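Can't paste images in this forum, so I'm doing it all in text. The chain is below; anyone willing to post the predicted structure tokens underneath?
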Amino acid sequence: MTEPFAAVPTSASTATAAAGGDAAPLSAAQIAEALDRVRAAVTRSVVGQDAVIDEALVAFLARGHALLEGVPGTAKTLLVRTLAGALGARFGRIQFTPDLMPSDVTGVSVLREREGGGARGFEFHAGPVFTDLLLADEINRAPAKTQAALLEAMQERQVTVDGTPRTLGPLFTVFATQNPVEYEGTYPLPEAQLDRFLLKIRVAYPSAEAELEMLARYSAGFDPDRAAVSPPALDASSLAALRSAADAVRVAPEVREYVAAIVRATRDDPGLTLGGSPRASVALFRAARAAALLAGRDFATPDDVKDLAPAVLRHRVVIAPELEVEGRTADDVLQSVLTRVRAPQ
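Text version of the structure:
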């Protein structure tokens, strides 16, 4: 496959204007090389989480946000920080706590004296949300009003402070984390906010071989907190071109029908009290295109849809109480849905 992927211009912002400017088309070989460089840069620090890295890249390429769920110590923070460095993007982190206020996220206007003795005026101090890759750490520890401060930013790529809308950069992506085993003092995310996340990524323990490899690296002197900062694997124009290439991935009518069939099947499944919305169909469509690009193709296949369906849907459906009592999970029900819905040949 030697034809270049068509590139669609993306909008610019003052924060990262280069990333939003016109992007020259990249060939298939250039796309594969660029994504391999990013993967290699991240895996130098994050061991044994290759599937998680790929899903995080899917979220970024599809211009979506991701919710990372895993127990403490599974490299969630390290993953996002390293990914931002590999992409040459700005990294920001917010530690969500019960006393965190919305203004701590979005920023605040401060009354200042004008130079030269002029009249006083308000000066806006931008909050940590004004970045490219934002790690919202333990998002379920903040109250609902603070969680809601992210809603406008995630959906509209802007925040409104004192009635003034302020645009975020074109690369703005939220990676939020939550602990699945500790619920004391937490505030469950409402469905309205969960639906804003393109993917819910399960971050499991690494394999025994990966854990031994991690220990071997530490034995050799590796420390991610003190390691020298590596140069970015990509520049801003390459990021824009990669996202444009994902937008240009072809999805055949039968694959689109497969996407719709899967999501519609969740609405009729007796094991679910809430199925996927039309937004879930769009999310699965976008994720499948990005997954195809990661696989080096300019067309999506039914396998791309099937592989990403659990990550796209697990936080958008609600399992029936009787199944939850039996220890069943949303992933269990979704696997039965995927088995039942016939994939196109």
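The two ends are 22 Å apart (CA to CA). Confidence is low (pLDDT under 50) at residues 1-18.
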